[in-house]
Predict the 3D structure of the following.
Amino acid sequence: MTFSAPTSQAAPGGVGEVLGLFRAQPSLTRADVMERTGLSRSTVNQRLDALVGAGLIAPSGEGASTGGRPASRFAFNQDRGVLLVADVGATGMRTAACDLGGAVLVARECPIDVADGPHAVLTVIGRLFEEMLAEAGRTTAEAHGIGLDVPGPVDFGSGQVVSPPIMSGWDRFDIPGWFADRYACPVLVDKDVNAMAFGEQRRVYPDVSPLLMVKVGTGVGAGLIVDGRVFRGADGAAGDIGHIQVTVAGVDTEPICRCGNAGCLEAYAGGWALIRDLREAGQDVATVDDAVALIRTGDLTAVRLVRRAGRILGGAIADSVSLLNPRVVVITGQLARAEEQLFAGVREMVYRRSLPLATRSLQIVPTKLDTRAGLIGLALLLADGIFAPDRVEQLLSA
Amino acid sequence: MTFSAPTSQAAPGGVGEVLGLFRAQPSLTRADVMERTGLSRSTVNQRLDALVGAGLIAPSGEGASTGGRPASRFAFNQDRGVLLVADVGATGMRTAACDLGGAVLVARECPIDVADGPHAVLTVIGRLFEEMLAEAGRTTAEAHGIGLDVPGPVDFGSGQVVSPPIMSGWDRFDIPGWFADRYACPVLVDKDVNAMAFGEQRRVYPDVSPLLMVKVGTGVGAGLIVDGRVFRGADGAAGDIGHIQVTVAGVDTEPICRCGNAGCLEAYAGGWALIRDLREAGQDVATVDDAVALIRTGDLTAVRLVRRAGRILGGAIADSVSLLNPRVVVITGQLARAEEQLFAGVREMVYRRSLPLATRSLQIVPTKLDTRAGLIGLALLLADGIFAPDRVEQLLSA
């Protein structure tokens, strides 16, 4: 089961909209709900009774006195179930069981090779989901949703990875179908940096739009959040910054990219390109983490190469700033841990190349949620899908 | 007076929402409105009485029989007033008086030099507005809104041009204030290609999202429409494709751009760059229209140069497709009239460089509204602002 577009318009002031208020606030009184919806007291009472009956909200202590007896407060019941999420990278994976508010209850990490294909990787994920459910004291039936993010292009509607440059064997594999035997809940699949951008925006920059998140790990990708929603484009392919062409002075032969083209951003500035360049310079590095460790020792060759990567990355981010005019650019991924060595080059190019109107209030910052951005983003995307107003109405009228 | 963000939330099922239904349809019966809003017959009658009383809708013939007497049809009153719009280019300008549905009633064209500054250009616009009002048999008081689009970055909230690369003298000039003496209506100022993109999307591709419009005139710019709305970014600077950096093989010294940087897209592929290159090749061309005329004669140098411009433009559009994943890319501007010579290069680069997921359903097409896209787009943007649900409620409750 995947998330499809709403089949019916939710009624304004309906039970779905009222639940939405509770999901956005720690707690509310009946009077709060009346004020925010314009509904009558009797209608509000009906809505709250339905939501309490379904276990979606629950009484939550007492509110401030309104002159007579204290008003009862209600809060979204984040413990009604759990969300199982997996943030799948090229060489490693993080999984978590989250509550319905997106808080991480149990987490796991595990090295993988995404190129081993969907059967191998999804088997590990399935096992970790079981372990985490057990540790959280929850049953399979209590899983309200499953979310995966992957380092490749995703057709969000069908939950399929489509023609990924890496991820061999995953093309059009039915990921939601894999989980259908064991779990009755909906399954969401998204591009990794979309989930990360969504988590970071919702948790750290709730009032910012647009927010552009750029992940510089083994590859390079971007996610854009506009008005609180993931901007996916027409087919879910938006944010493919890693394969835009960049100009590098003094380069005679453009490096070949993993996608088959030459001169792509990640063929210069991705983690795999940095490893290639460090090896050519005689350094013994096998992984992006090795490269970052070497940069942190202050090795001159490594520092020179990461600064160059930062300027090249900055050129592409400057192009994105010119096209999209974001308020905040968040940089994440393993290479973002090289911090100032990378950021200096990025900032230099963006402020040099983009319009003053686009840069006067622009922030370029490292991720605050760091390695949990994807997990939290997936949980919040799932919760938004599961508790979309029209779905809540269907649930309660069923 | 400019358009600000809504100060209050319009009530669902309110008079503003009901007017919105009429603006989207040729005509509706009372039963249609009941069905689409879920409002009761008596509430619908109240809403329609208020809208008829304000002259915003009017009876429109008779509807199909519903068994008893024919249902009365009502339609949006597009003739309640006029919208005065001006599409300002670097070297020429088009103006129109439109009805409230965005249809052009009277139009004018006029050569100008936008670098003559706001006083000179706005004086001409003011005179043309008066002439067109007279020709349409309308008074100044009947102008419901004024819209201008300009070839430079605009702070949409204040209606000011901000740090424009061309348009000397316009920086932060109070365009809405210029019209305030004579007209009491709101004034909207937007970037030219935003208005063009909005007109094209609304009239030709009403169900398409995202739509990217690229204007290749003297300069190069882009406008993006997402879910039926202009995507402006955080400061209104989005779509600045003309100044992203491009890679051109075999170029030792990057050309200097009008913005002060080197290697910008428009320094290779804009009309001014094509004129520069044609002159260097010994051709006697003064304007972009001269260059297009020369291309159409089949002159080999001109054809070679425009094909090269097409491929370079295509590289930047491929980057935009990778980032934004639009469903339709519309190309407009004087150079778009070079048609296949330009489009072949654009298509070649986009299909070569962008992800299969992003190009499998992509259309790259010339503008259908052509020179009227900006005028129609401005009128529709004005109408959306003037008849925003919260404004209609304020209007009727005043």
Observations:
- The longest strand of chain A covers residues 57-65.
- Chain A is about 40% helix and 20% strand.
